[in-house]
Amino acid sequence: MELVIQDVVKTFDDKVILDEASFQFEKGKIYGLLGRNGAGKTTLFNCISKDLSIDSGTIQLEEDMETHDFSDLDVGLVHATPTLPDFMTGYEFIKFFIDMNKEKMPNVRTPDEYLAKVGIKKEDRHRLLKDYSHGMKNKVQMIATMMVQPPVLLLDEPLTSFDVVAAHEMKELILSIKKDSVVIFSTHILQLAQDLCDEIVVLHKGKLTGFDPTKIHTNSFEADIVAMLSDEEGKSQDAVVEVIGESDDE
Fold it and tell me: Does residue 89 sit within a domain?
């Protein structure tokens, strides 16, 4: 299975965000989507998930050499800023999510098992979500999305709010789902991209460009990516791609 993006155009007023962008993302691989601030990474994700309409072009799935449209239910999108119901507890939300989606879930487990999988402690599972930290909300949002194993999984800036242990747990979770899904995540953290990605895709000036996968683990990786994100004059000091560790905040 492949997610095929073909000549996609998206504009806001007079600003072109996606300019005939094209790329094919394969199931079984984890793709890192890199780009400068404002390049359109979140916009691209919202177009794939059908939260935004595109002006022209196509976004389809290809299976057995045939392309076809898909529904928004085939896409799991984990937002950088979690959107969860504040009036529910973590346990209640996961239980509700299971009840609503159990027919689509390959292996249904208990809410406690899912919450434990992302490191939500027993004493926190019956607290209101409004009292969760940003990192805890991100964990709940991520496990809820992954529970249904969607054909396409989009992660917008994952792991940046997790401590070292939680980030490791999330990495293992992401790796476990890639065999059944097309996985794409956007990040500014080059070390994270190197750790997790099979391939890197750069979004720059509205275009999607693949990066040579044989160079992901070389010493020149950072310089090569920054060069791809530089402006016409070759100046790269404003390129918002950093080699930094995961955040210590949860």
Answer: no
